Amino acid sequence: MSEERKKLLEVTKLRKYFPVSAGFMKKSNVQAVQDVSLYIYEGETLGLVGESGCGKTTFGRTVLRLYEPTSGKIVYDGDTIYDSEKGVSANMLPYRRKMQLIFQDPSASLDPRMTVGEIVGEALDIHGLYPGKQERADRISELLTQVGLNSEHANRFPHEFSGGQQQRIGIARALAVEPQFIVCDEPISALDVSIQSQVVNMLEDLQHEIGLTYLFIAHDLSVVRHISNRIGVMYLGCLVELAESYELCAHPIHPYAQTLLSAVPLTDPEKNRHRQRILLQGDIPSPLNPPSGCRFHTRCPYATERCKEVMPELKEHSPGHYAACHMLEN
Ligand SMILES: Nc1ncnc2c1ncn2[C@@H]1O[C@H](COP(=O)(O)OP(=O)(O)OP(=O)(O)O)[C@@H](O)[C@H]1O
Ligand code: SF4
Ligand SMILES: [Mg+2]
User: What predicted TM-score, i.e. pTM, was given to this entire model?
Assistant: First the structure.
């Protein structure tokens, strides 16, 4: 009998709206994340992709409760840390150690006035870890070595490092508190292509060494397909498809995911030449005033009247393969 895998994170109908003023005395909401449900198994990497502005960062930060959710439920390692229906809003301090974030732009996320040792050490101090002077210094050296830097780097400032090294410092800071779960928000998109794979490989090695669980956010499917066990696709705040990486890349079933996949270059140049790229009509609509029903209906070649009126729910169409599309229900 196969053992049930442990779900480290379970998110149910998570919604995040940002209130904004829409002219004189008028208030409106940016509907950045719309009722997203997913779970992440312990030790896996879940990739999250979608166009700019579709809500990936907002989802990642709301899961960590760096943004307060508008509604929904978040269960982390069996503890309900947020449940709008039951009025649960847990104190996050004990979870901050376990749930960390790696940022897209390493230079902007590192305080230029602090040395690398101070940046990494600050994370230790906040949680009262390694309080002795020597053990603190040893721990900082150990962390820097773990991310491919060395102990002499502790006395230098962030601007003395390359983009890739700065991202390594950001990763050392996240690792300092011994987390279980890390939201990696486009951790390589600001880096030179030549060093992107080094950072991805390091994140994979760390995952195996320490047993980390990742939510790995990227624009680009070609980045996440190699690192992720499963991939979720977002469109305008909604999760439209979720499946095992191979399955999603080989057999996408949602019209939007099919479009995204058609833009990913194939390794075989011959196949690439003959492949048809699906081009979408129109721009991505505004999350301030998203389309009714299925949010993709204004650009979907298969849209029907029903699609304009009723938002499709994410349903399991084959084992582990979820999608939200009326067409698939017939
Ligand atoms: N603090 C905020 N206040 C108001 N609107 C916001 C805020 N943060 C994000 N948004 C809006 O929410 C939507 C989702 O933004 P988000 O940054 O989550 O997208 P993303 O998928 O991460 O995009 P990118 O790929 O460009 O990083 C966008 O329309 C954005 O303008
Ligand atoms: S629900 Fe309708 S509009 Fe939305 S993706 Fe499916 S067919 Fe297209
Ligand atoms: Mg983002």
Answer: 0.94
- Our count of domains for the chain comes to 1
For ligand 1, mutation pick of 14, 21, 56, 256 (most atoms within 8 Å of CB): 56
Secondary structure (DSSP) of 275-309: PPPPPPPSPPPPTTSPPSSSTTTTT-TT--HHHHH
Q: Whose CA is nearest to atom 29 of ligand 1?
A: 53
Per-residue pLDDT at 280 exceeds 90 = no
Please give the distance, rounded to the nearest whole angstrom, from the Cα atom of residue 251 to the centre of ligand 3. Answer: 26
| Position 1 pLDDT exceeds 60 | no
End-to-end CA distance of the chain: 34
- CATH code for the domain in which residue 55 is found: 3.40.50.300
Residue 183 covered by a domain: no
Q: What are phi and psi of 109, to 5 degrees?
A: -90, -5
Q: What is the pLDDT of residue 273?
A: 66
Q: How far is CA 53 from CA 24, 205, 224, 258, 324, in A?
A: 26, 30, 18, 19, 19
Query: Contact, 9 vs 17, CB < 8 A?
Result: no
